[in-house]
């Protein structure tokens, strides 16, 4: 467990990063993975922390004021968490969870919560993602599809590209006869600033293979995600 691996001279900041290292891996990691993560996080975070401090000053605030003293560190950690997809690797995420199956019927994982940051304003876009595929002798572990969604969502993105990346990744990993992805999301950059539209959302889709070629397959998917 984290506290057992940390040495006696470890301070609170180290503990915070260490615990984040555990959190980002999402499962019980090996000790050396944890230390690698810790070192990488500390290095990136020191630079990011200085930049967040500069932003706080630039908006006219005093970074030494009590409520803001640890804010650059917190903001750096939050930004690292929200962009951890750059550090992740598809093979580690799938972890070999591809299983032989004779089932060739549509598999859908729907209503996957999704949080990303738009690459134009660094503001969140939030919504849900539906992913379907038509197996061709192989199925993928259920949890791996939301993990794939998270990996790409935790990068700076536009929604159209995120949708495509998820679709192509699921296609490559499963070798499916077809993959469909729909994302419905609200963009804070169009809500809390800019055009200021609170009730609109953006819907993007990617249809590959059988979903693109066969309108009945596509329609079945669309009906099932709305049912
Ligand atoms: N297509 C697409 N556009 C996005 C996405 N996220 C944000 N945008 C848009 O990116 C555009 C950037 O336009 P700019 O004119 O360069 O930036 P801006 O002056 O901040 O634009 P406004 O938001 O209209 O105030 C805006 O229209 C945003 O709404 C996305 O995921 N997909
Ligand atoms: Zn934006």
TrEMBL record:
Transmembrane segments: none annotated. Keywords: GTP-binding, Hydrolase, Metal-binding, Nucleotide-binding, One-carbon metabolism, Zinc. One of its GO terms (molecular function) is zinc ion binding. Residues 48-226 form the GTP cyclohydrolase I domain. It comes from the Bacteria. This is GTP cyclohydrolase 1. Gene3D superfamilies: 1.10.286.10, 3.30.1130.10. Coiled coil: none annotated. The gene is folE. Pathway: Cofactor biosynthesis; 7,8-dihydroneopterin triphosphate biosynthesis; 7,8-dihydroneopterin triphosphate from GTP: step 1/1. GO terms for biological process: one-carbon metabolic process; tetrahydrobiopterin biosynthetic process; tetrahydrofolate biosynthetic process.
């Amino acid at each position: 467990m984290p506290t057992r691996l940390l040495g006696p001279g470890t301070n609170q900041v180290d503990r915070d990063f260490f615990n984040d290292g555990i959190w980002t891996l999402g499962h019980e990691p090996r000790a050396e993975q944890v230390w690698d993560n810790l070192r990488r996080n500390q290095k990136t975070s020191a630079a990011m922390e200085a930049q967040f401090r500069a932003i706080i000053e630039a908006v006219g605030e005093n970074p030494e004021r009590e409520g803001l003293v640890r804010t650059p560190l917190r903001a750096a950690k939050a930004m690292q968490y929200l962009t951890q997809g750059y550090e992740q690797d598809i093979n580690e995420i799938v972890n070999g969870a591809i299983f032989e199956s004779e089932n060739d019927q549509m598999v859908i994982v729907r209503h996957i919560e999704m949080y990303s940051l738009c690459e134009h304003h660094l503001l969140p876009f939030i919504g849900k993602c539906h992913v379907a595929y038509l197996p061709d002798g192989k199925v993928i572990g259920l949890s791996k599809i939301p993990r794939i969604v998270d990996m790409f969502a935790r990068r700076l993105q536009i929604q159209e590209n995120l949708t495509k990346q998820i679709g192509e990744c699921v296609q490559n990993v499963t070798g499916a006869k077809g993959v469909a992805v729909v994302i419905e999301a609200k963009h804070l950059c169009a809500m809390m600033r800019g055009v200021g539209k609170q009730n609109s959302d953006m819907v993007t889709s990617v249809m590959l293979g059988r979903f693109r070629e066969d309108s009945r397959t596509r329609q079945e998917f669309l009906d099932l995600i709305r049912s």
